[in-house]
Amino acid sequence: MGLITLSDHLHDIAENSVNAGAKNVTIVVEETSETFFFSVEDDAGGIRPDIFEKIFDPFVTTRKKEIRRVGLGLPFLKQAAETTGGYVRVETEFGKGTKTEVLFYKSNIDCQPVGNLPQTFLVLLLNGGIEWHIKRCYNSSCYEIDTQTLSKYVGQLDSPGKISLVSDMLEELENSLIEEEKI
Ligand SMILES: Nc1ncnc2c1ncn2[C@@H]1O[C@H](COP(=O)(O)OP(=O)(O)OP(=O)(O)O)[C@@H](O)[C@H]1O
Ligand SMILES: [Mg+2]
Question: Which parts of the chain sit beneath pLDDT 50?
Fold first, then answer.
């Protein structure tokens, strides 16, 4: 298995929203030279109180047995973030939704690499039936992308051509963000 990256953690948390049946998911990623913060907010109905008490315990899951994974997303994330001096905070309102906020200190020697954020965004955007709102900042420069705007320009992401177009666009947005910071 490859090294887990901060982007993989973001993907895991956003996947929790998808699995819980979210219709709207808002992702914010704010990075500086020292820190990596992300939040994921959904309208998937919140976490059951009996589960919420135990979400950081390994192997707590409401997912069906035949599904690949086992309930390690949140415990792994908490351990990884706290090792760097950061945190994971989960707020949930049962019947409404959940917001998860995560901070990593990149300056800590044990911090995992950031990984491929544009690719993570792309994979998430390919989940049909969900309105994604993504904001990505590096220091004071940001870009935003959302399902509605995207569908206005390219329609449904239903062909390899369109997917690679969006992939290129995300790469370019990401590159120009990092470039701007170098100036
Ligand atoms: N955004 C969310 N909305 C509703 N329930 C959630 C949400 N995030 C987590 N949960 C609940 O918390 C449980 C534990 O989440 P966790 O990510 O640790 O494990 P998992 O998603 O079940 O499995 P894995 O992450 O290993 O694939 C989930 O099974 C689900 O019941
Ligand atoms: Mg999970």
Answer: 1
